[in-house]
Protein 1
Amino acid sequence: MFKFIKKADIVLFFVLLAFGIGLSALSLFTGTSGQKVQIEVNGQPYAVYSLAENQTIEITEHGHTNKITIKDGAVQMSYSDCKNQICVNDGQISKTNQSIVCLPNKVMVEITGGEEEFDAISN
Amino acid sequence: MPSQTNRSGHNRRTQKTRLLAIGAMFACLALIFSYIEAIIPFNAGIPGVKLGIANLVVIIALYNMGPKYAFTINCIRILVAGLLFNGAFGAVYSLAGGVLSFLVMWGLKKTNLFSMAGVSMAGGVAHNMGQLFVASAIVSNLKMFLYFPVLMFSGLASGIMIGVVACVIDSRVPKQLFR
Ligand SMILES: [Zn+2]
């Protein structure tokens, strides 16, 4: 019944299929680890964590201590020994390009990568 | 029109008139298919996943009437469908997908290596990719590329389906219609 199908069709099919599978693997990979929590201390990159992984990071640099908590896709400065406590009062951030800065301790937490908010595509 | 039956240029003129008439008919048919697709919510909540029945007409036209007619039919179909049921914004997506898929199909057909099913399959994928490129350019968002595999596979599947149907139809269409 499918005699009209040529060899090149089958080759092309498998090429496209392989391409598709490769892309799925890629998007799966980048999908789960899309957003990162980037920490800078004193203007220098300190560490990068995945936003998807729940954990608390304690940073002690120059005699100052900050605790950063990543929980359920949101980040907050859970503890800081700084005077003004602005960073602790900032609460949670969860979106790309949002950041929390502790100016006295020179600690910055930023969410990078992944996707920006969008709902333009619906149809 | 049919009264113009002078000997010289008779064949040429009637052929051209006939092709124009058939081309218009094909464009209407493609439009009807677009309409059917627009009213049947075939897409499973994923934007851009469509069966692309209208492509059936484009492929038949490409093989029997040549690229010029096929391209024109395709563009008319997309623009009118855009105005009637998809909205102008939707027409931009469709046009990108339609033009890219047409170019791919035309190119593959020219190699003479592929059957209609293969040509249609590549066209289906190209159609979805084209739409995605425009979408990601407009929205400028990387998340769009999460749709990439979905659109890829759906384009593949629908392209093959349409291609097989096109093969069957093409073998039944009386060829003197286009001569
Ligand atoms: Zn602070």
Protein 2
Amino acid sequence: MSGILVVMEQQGGQWHRMSWEALAAGIELGKQSGQPVLAAVPGSEIAALANEAATKAVAKVHAVEHPLLKDYTPDGFTAALEQLIRQHAPTVVLFPHTYQVRDYAPKLATRFGQSLLSDVIHIRADGGTPVFVRQLFQGKLNADFRPSGNGPFFASVQAGAFRADSLEAGSAQVETFTPQLDAAQIRTKPQAPFREAARAVDLTAAEIIVSVGRGIKDKENIHIVEALAKALNGELAASRPICDNGWLPMERQVGSSGQTVSPKVYMAIGISGAIQHLVGMKGSKIIVAINKDANAPIFEVADYGIVGDLFEIVPALVEEVKKAKG
Amino acid sequence: MKIIVAIKQVPVRDSQLRIDASGRWIQEEDLSFEINEPDAYALEEALQLKEKHGGEVVALCLGPARATQTIREALAKGADRAIHIEEENTGALDTFGVASLLSSAIQGEKPDLILTGLQSDDLGYGQTGVVMAEILGLPHSTIIMQVEKENESIRVKRELENGWFQHIDIPLPAVLAIQSGISKLRYATLMGIKKAKLKEMKKVTVGELGAPPPATVLIERAYAPQKSKRTQILEGDAKAVAAKLVEKLKFEVRVI
Ligand SMILES: Cc1cc2nc3c(=O)[nH]c(=O)nc-3n(C[C@H](O)[C@H](O)[C@H](O)COP(=O)(O)OP(=O)(O)OC[C@H]3O[C@@H](n4cnc5c(N)ncnc54)[C@H](O)[C@@H]3O)c2cc1C
């Protein structure tokens, strides 16, 4: 057994951008552990994408081609990748931690008697075995995991944890791998993706976003934060639970299931900073966090932080903004 | 429909966490515990499906003795009975181990649906349901925002990234990992709490179920994350910090 296999994700010929971050993680681990890095691209008619992956510093690219892999299904993808992994016996299999990977990678790992280490933020080769770092309690703690046994070890890497812009160029060989798949094996029938409704609010155009989280406690309190958005001439946004509760419409949700924004100023008020929220806003130029918990993960990405009660601070802010605007 | 819902007990949100003496987990002594939030939604979905289609809801939980409280609450909300795999040392299990035990504990139950929450608030692996599906040889889907029964199958609404969704048709029996926010959570009624005391809570041990496969991925060390970004913390009373922040926004960031 040797090699690090990175499974890259595409849909309808379009890369999932996190694929490159997973590849970067694989290349980094390959360097540290002196192992070759192989990439796999599962899908149908994916030759062009496989060729593109081959321009990076990898030893080989496996184009895992089959008409039954055109639409993603957990049964199809698990069966195809299981065959590839059995044939090439890598020591480590890496994925981007996408919604699709959440859906099938645990199943695939189970086929090998393994548990997937999901949402990994750091990997280091430590005396032959890789050590994986992942978060506990929604980012409040970190933990090191050192897998035991012979592997293969399965891990998915968190959005933004590895830099895709530093990928070295290379010229790898592309090999087509045709898995044995039978339509009868695939039990679930996916329909075409859709969006709920046209978005009336385009948060991506806003210069200032004032975003409210569960710290607001009650629908009746939303106006407190809304007043700040108004005073600053900004857009009001929210974390997921606020939209789930129907306190604000879903089109104002920021995060992996909502909108991705990068305004000049993003104010996170009573938001803890779970990764699914962070991926939607950490590209903002200036991030302000107001939270009563000094250890809230949101402070990890904040430029300015205020530790305190939003119910005291936000009204004071509205006053000061109004004063400053004259 | 017979529905099994896997639920887990976790520290309440906003708990102040401290690492314990082993260096591998948190001090649990002075914490309060509650049902893992996504699991509460899985339970809610199970209860609503039962109300629509009839049948039975069975709560399934692996956890220490203190988890009894959370299981009772599930019964009070309307689950018909419960199976509790009582195990104090859950830290010695990995996901494959946990899912194996949960699967053995429901042998012979023949459910139409198994629901789990999408992920736990403590470990956050997000895979117990998927692994159970593989062990039990059942189809599955995850990040589910809606479930509709249609004869021998179900149609689910699965959440995709960036505000997209997809419907998926799945034959029964099946396993679903339910997303938080799928519906509104109910509260237990006084009547429900009374009734819960009479409902069956079957206790089984890991010994009775048979040892799970040996764990391959366990926590070696838990620790507070190191801050990598320099955050300027503004200090003072509400008025003072507000004035400081507005000054920054006006003169440094220049948005006011
Ligand atoms: C597949 C998936 C997709 C997801 N997609 C998204 C997404 O798109 N967007 C998203 O936001 N989340 C998403 N989530 C949910 C995410 O994991 C978190 O659960 C969510 O972001 C938490 O929201 P929150 O920070 O508002 O609430 P909490 O985590 O409950 O945080 C509330 C915060 O408020 C603080 N607080 C409480 N009272 C006060 C007070 N008086 N003053 C100041 N601070 C106070 C607390 O200290 C705490 O930090 C997703 C999860 C999954 C699994």
